[in-house]
Structure formats: C-alpha cells, structure tokens
Amino acid sequence: MRPKNATIHTGPIPTRPSGSPHVNAVMGLREWGLILILSVIWGGSFFFVGVAVKEMTPLTIVLCRVGFASMILLAVVRLTGKKIPMSPGMWGAFFVLGALNNLIPFSLIVWGQTHIDSSLAAILNATTPIFSVILAHLLTREERLTANRMAGVLVGWIGVAVLIGIESLGGFGIQVLGQLAVVGASLSYACAAIYGRRFKSMDPVVVSAGMLCGSTVMMLPVALIIEQPWHLSPGAASWAALLGLSAVSTSLAYIIYFRVLAVAGATNILLVTFLIPASAIFLGVMLLGERPGWNAFAGMALIFMGLIAIDGRLIKGFRRQKG
Q1: Is residue 2 part of a domain?
Q2: Strand partners, 20
Q3: Distance CA 313, CA 323 (A)
C-alpha cells in the first residue's frame, strides 16, 4: 500500500493510510529518533492506564484523557493561527471520528486493562493494521488483498489465538473478555482509519483537535451518569498518570506522529507498530511488576511476522537480493 494521505489515521496505533500527498520517504537520524520516542510515548499510554485503573474508573479515565488533550490541542491550534471549521456537517464528522478513534477504543482498552496486564494489551492492540488491511479490501477499491497480505492476516490471527490461549475454549472468563475488548479497540481504530479519509484536505492538528473535542462532549454525560466520578479519591500517582496520558501519550504523540508522517511517509511510520509492545512490556515489567508468559512473546512474534508480510518491504528486499 503506498501512502497517499497524511491525515487518515489519528489514533494511537499507526496504520498504513492511503491518500496522502507525496512525501520524502527517506529516514534520517532525526526521524528514526522521533519514531523511537513515539513508540515509547504510545507504549507508555498502556503504562499510564495501568497506574490510573488502580484508583479510577474506566470511563472517567477516558473522559480526563480526551478532555485534557482537547484543551491542549485547542491551545496549539490557536497559537499556530489555525481555525477549526464550525459547520454542523463537519462537526458531525468530528463526532463520528471521535467515537471510532477515541471514545470506543479508549473505553475498551481501559476496561480491558482492569483485567489484563498493560503489556498484553499493547501486543493485542498491535493488530490494528491487520484489521485495516481487511477493511480496506472490503470497503475501498484502492487497496486489495494480495497473497502477502492474506498470509500476514492469517499469521497475525494465529498470534492473537496464541495470546488469548487455549484455555479460552473452556469458557469466556473475565480475562478473556478483557483481551477481546482490546481486540475490539483495534477494530475500532481500523474503522476510524477508513472513515478518516474524508479529512484528507484538512490540517491534521485541526482534525485531531476537533475529534478530541467531539469525544469530550460525548464522553462527559456518559462518565458522569454511569460512574459518578465525584466519589473517587485518586492519589498523586493517578493524577500524574492522567497528565501523562493526555499531555504526552495523546497531545504530544499526535504532534510527533504528523511530523514524522510529513517527512518519512506513512509506510515508514508503520515501524512504530513493532516498537510499541516492546516499550509497553519494558515499562510493565520494570514499573508495574508484570510478568508476561511465554504465550505473550510467542503471540507477539507471530503478530509481528504477520505485519512484516502485510508491509511487504522486507520480503521485496529479500527477493531482490536473491534475484
């Protein structure tokens, strides 16, 4: 899939968008550094959630994340002299994108992490490009399934099956439901990537700000009515995690993501997908005391093999050398 659109995907896991303008796909030292930083930032989002869920409820965490991040990005929009369109139709589109790219996946991931480790959630969330390939084939005429992509999808799903484990065949326990919730979040991100094509002519920071504002408006009554968060008493660690989640893993991540996307292209930024689980596992093990089992690493390896097949660049390079 060749990159055509620099504003397709605005969520925490990058997919391989279509429709972006021509960009310089040469990766310099700065771009490699930014990709590494971005992987740590997005991998850190699972760590921040892992800290916050110990004292706060899932929907409240999501509300704080999108609310604080929307305020930060609105300030960025204003300081850079940009403007958010005010037409009802555009705001309706922002609300749909916000639901697909923030409200639904954020809620599923946070709820899932109340029952599974942050490292496992990060690995499962790396399936987003697999869903994107399937949906792009079904819903668009531009990106069709090839033999490599089909093989990548199959290997990736084998990896998911290994992660969830054979014990799930005996019944859907709460841990299995937590894992399936994160997989559902990946599907929602992939849907957002397809829907987001309509924003290809807009500034990506403006799209991100509008999307997060829409997410905040939708999330506010849901969190207040269902969870009544005024009864919560989070400590300093939870507030620090929320600040990191909104300011670093959301607002700053978007800015870095679009900077790398503009210079290196959507194909190269797919490399972040491979690095996010590694950073999430490191943070989970070192700071949260998590101990991933053998199936976590085996499943991650299979998912990565699937992503390599979907990406296709290593396979093409190997064929050229062999020829």
Answers
A1: no
A2: 5
A3: 15
Least confident of 24-33, 53-62, 219-228, 295-304: 24-33
Residue 159 CB contacts under 8 Å (≥ 6 apart), including other chains: 298, 299, 300, 301, 302, 303, 304, 305, 306
Of all residues in the chain, what percent carry a pLDDT higher than 90? Answer: 41
Residue 49 is predicted with a pLDDT of 95
Cα 5 to Cα 199: distance, rounded to the nearest angstrom: 9
Query: Which residue is listed with tokens 């290997």?
Result: 155
CB 50 within 8 A of CB 118: yes
DSSP secondary structure letter of residue 199: G
Q: Would residue 10 count as lying in a domain?
A: no
Quote the distance between the C-alpha of residue 77 and its chain's center: 22
Query: How far is residue 268 CA from its own chain's centroid?
Result: 16
Residue 32's pLDDT is 82
Domain carrying residue 232? 29-322
CA angle 93, 97, 100 (to 5 degrees): 145
Using CA atoms, how far apart are residues 242 and 236, in angstroms rounded to an integer?
A: 10
Q: Name, in order, each residue with C-beta under 8 angstroms of 90's C-beta and a sequence gap of 6 or more.
A: 210
Q: What is the identity of the amino acid at 191?
A: C
First to last CA, the chain: 23
